[in-house]
Specification:
The protein has 171 residues and is an all-alpha fold. It is 77% helix and 0% strand. The chain has helices spanning 2-37, 41-55, 60-73, 76-89, 97-126, 135-145, 152-162. α2 packs antiparallel against α3 (60-73) and α3 packs antiparallel against α4 (76-89). It is elongated.
Length: 171
């Protein structure tokens, strides 16, 4: 009889702890949602990460908002990883508006990321800070947006020339 009572007490304790963790995670999510809606994307991301830690794992709802925050923060490698997790979690949600929105983001990732790299390089180019241009990023961008921004070739070439890529070459 004592063993049964002890087991019931332990089970109730575990349930209370699980409910407490769920409540904390929900609170963190609500704070993240509010932070996202007010434009504080970094805080939203941090609170979503806290919700995941509290639960011990993520879910489609958390990843959805995390992806939106990461896109606003222009953290594209992290966004790609979050998208992969979202699609793992959201297999049952295929066809929903949120799922389709994530598909659109996934489909536009290369172009979005490339445009950011181009804008960064163009800004440095306009300031004549050629040595600061990341040519590896421009190589990546060229594959996705060269038809939209043909001056990408000139910017990359000028950056390479400044960095000495063409030393000893004869033109």
């Amino acid at each position: 009889m004592r063993l049964v009572i002890i087991c019931i007490i332990l089970l109730q304790s575990a349930l209370v702890h699980a409910q407490d963790a769920d409540t904390k995670a929900q609170a963190a999510y609500m704070i993240a949602e509010d932070a996202y809606n007010t434009g504080n994307y970094q805080r939203a991301y941090e609170k979503l990460t806290e919700a995941e830690r509290t639960l011990g794992q993520g879910n489609a709802r958390i990843e959805y908002l995390k992806i939106k925050a990461l896109m606003e923060l222009k953290r594209y490698p992290d966004t790609r990883a979050a998208l992969a997790r979202y699609f793992d979690y959201a297999k049952a949600n295929k066809g929903t508006d949120k799922y389709n929105e994530m598909l659109m983001i996934y489909g536009k990732m290369d172009e979005t990321e490339s445009e950011e790299y181009y804008k960064e390089a163009k800004s440095l180019f306009d300031k004549e800070q050629f040595e600061l241009i990341d040519t590896a990023k421009l190589n990546y961008a060229e594959k996705h947006i060269a038809d939209k921004y043909p001056d990408i070739y000139y910017i990359r070439g000028r950056a390479r020339l400044t960095k000495g890529y063409y030393q000893g070459a004869y033109f």
